[in-house]
Amino acid sequence: MSDSQITKKALAESIKKLMEERPLKKINISDIVEGCNMNRQSFYYHFKDKYDLVNWIYNTEFIVTIKDASMTSWELLEKICDFFYKNQTFYRNAFQVTGQNSFTEYFVEVLHPILKVQLKSIFENKKNVDFYATFFADAIRVSISRWLFEGAVIPPEQFVELLKKAVEGVAKSFGDNN
């Protein structure tokens, strides 16, 4: 592991520990670097801001692990929910922040192209696929964040099964009306 990777991992562990205790909006760069005996310059060499660090954590701990895996949209969604379930406090905290550079925006940014590929095979009108991918990415983000905010009392596989039934039920209902 390179020195750069070691530094990034130390910063990641520091912010994760801090996010167990307090909201992300109440954590500053000084807190993060103090938690791993580094200086602000080290932080800014690797990350733009604390939101960039949170996004890096998601990318390195989850996205790279599933990047080359072949799975259906529902399997991917279950893997995402399982990952969030195992790291609830961190991601509940991460989803509370909205706006530019936030994890909320990053999550949709990562999910959108995945959904777009999946939806191209479903919808006949290819020119509207971007709209559909945005709709479903936003719906998934809101559903997952609500699930986490409510304590994720439903296990991930059951939560995804409920989402699947809702989507398929609505699709069937629209299909029956045509």
Could you give the topology of this structure?
Layout: H1 3-21, H2 29-34, H3 40-46, H4 50-66, H5 73-86, H6 88-95, H7 103-120, H8 129-149, H9 156-176
Helix pairs in contact: 1-4, 5-6, 5-9, 7-8
Q: Give me the strand/helix succession.
A: HHHHHHHHH
Helicity level, as a percent range? over 70%
Tell me the structural class.
mainly alpha
Radius of gyration: 18 Å
Instruction: List low-pLDDT spans.
Output: none
- What shape does the CA trace take? elongated
- Count of individual helical segments: 9
Protein architecture, described:
By secondary structure, the protein is mainly alpha-helical. The chain has a domain at 71-176. It contains nine helices and no strands. It has helices at residues 3-21, 29-34, 40-46, 50-66, 73-86, 88-95, 103-120, 129-149, 156-176. α1 packs across α4 and α7 (103-120) crosses α8 (129-149). It is elongated. The termini are far apart.
Summarize the structure.
This protein is elongated. Helix content is 74%, strand content 0%.
Features of this protein?
178 residues; elongated; mainly alpha
